[in-house]
Amino acid sequence: ILSLVTTHTTHFFRESDHFDFLMNEAFPRLIREGARVRIWSAACSSGQEVYSLAISVLEFVREKGLRLTPGQVEILGSDIDSASVDFAREGIYPSEQIAALPRELANRYFDQGTGKIGSFVRVTDAVHALCKFQKTNLLTDSFPARSFDVIFTRNVMIYFKRRDVELIAKKLAQSLSSQGYLMIGHSESLDGLQVPVKRAGNAIYRRESAVQTDPRDRLGDAKRLIVIGASTGGVEAVKAVLESLPAQVPPILIVQHIPPQFSQNFAVRLNEICSFPVSEAKNGECIQNAHAYIAPGGKQMRVQTRLDGLYLEVNDDPPMSSNKPSVDYLFRSVVSLTAQFEITAAILTGMG
Q1: What is the CATH architecture of 216-348?
Q2: Where are the alpha helices (DSSP H) in the chain?
Q3: Helix or strand holding residue 121 (H, E)
Q4: Where are the domains positioned within the chain?
Q5: Please, are residues 196 and 220 in contact by the beta-carbon 8 Å criterion?
Q6: What is the model's pLDDT at position 99?
Q7: Is 101:12 a contact under the CB 8 Å cutoff?
Q8: Does the pLDDT value for residue 36 go beyond 90?
Q9: Distance separating alpha carbons of residues 307 and 79, to the nearest angstrom
Q10: Is 301 within 8 Å of 255 (Cβ atoms)?
């Protein structure tokens, strides 16, 4: 019944100006060597939007001469309708659905069927590898336990009452990373709703903490910085410290000795309970006030100084003091900043 009453109107690269925005504005900020990128198509229907996003990522990487590592980019597609999710997961479509695409794109990212399935195409393995699918009810379900750099939820809000639109939009905004983009349908608007996003384009919004008037204002006039190092037993100590802090805090850089598979979940957990955004650090990310950054497990994190502010470098440098990430590695990178910044450093153990 659900399949009959929900809309399935979609096609590849629908409302193409959003994809142009990704290629020209968002991806240059988000997609860099080693930087993790998470994208969510929150009402994916039969999957064309998800695969359009994946193709856009691969095209950007190809044009810029970049190289993706396994798991660096993840694109999630979700829908309320289980049948749509199952269909989308297959990635198989009638050939006429890609007839409007440029031939080079069609040839590069779709495999043509043969014989009895000669009238169908399937997305290539490279496209499919970036994509995952799940059933999600935007109104009643908990959202995926991660932060997203881009969320597409287009032409969905028009089917909800205004109070439900505000509820969903708030949940979506909370699922954005500090630099995240939320894109809705051209016939939709979040104007007048109490949602912590600001308009950044036609049916494009950004999380408020990402909207800056001038890059030199990112750290404000106080120029303060907090760095925290915690041993393996310090997870609860970090949690206790962060949840006690007010919303308006200096940037907080945290190295927690933690395995790679847990750092993202740790950041998500903290983001849910803190009064300011908390996210896993990304290479090249601009350090901003009222934000905490968790060093990714299995990586090193340090601070870089540029003319327009402070940035994070996340790399594969060898362990320091037998740790990766290493507290020493981060702390040494901020020593040179003590002349210009008021730096508060803390070591937490949580043991004993």
Answers
A1: 3-Layer(aba) Sandwich (3.40)
A2: 2-5, 16-21, 27-30, 48-64, 82-90, 103-109, 125-128, 162-174, 235-243, 260-273, 327-334
A3: strand 120-123
A4: 2-210, 216-348
A5: no
A6: 95
A7: yes
A8: no
A9: 44
A10: yes
| pLDDT computed for residue 145 by the predictor | 66
Task: Give phi and psi for 351, each to the nearest 5.
Answer: -100, 140
Rounded to the nearest 5°, which phi and psi values hold at 293? -120, 125
Taking only the tens place, the pLDDT of each residue in 208-257 is 755 443 333 345 445 789 999 998 778 889 999 998 888 778 999 999 98
CATH number among 3.40.630.30, 3.40.50.150, 2.30.30.240, 3.30.310.50, domain 2-210: 3.40.50.150
| Number of Cβ within a 10 Å radius of residue 275 | 13
Amino acid sitting at position 154: R
DSSP3 helix / strand / coil % (the chain, rounded to 5): 35, 25, 40
Within 8 A by CB and 6+ apart from 253, the residues are 225, 226, 227, 228, 281, 287, 292, 293, 295, 301, 303, 312, 330, 334
**Distance between CA atoms of 78 and 84, rounded to whole angstroms?**
9
For 286, which DSSP code?
B
Note the pLDDT tens digit of each residue in 280-337. 999 988 888 888 999 999 999 999 987 767 899 999 999 998 999 999 999 999 998 8
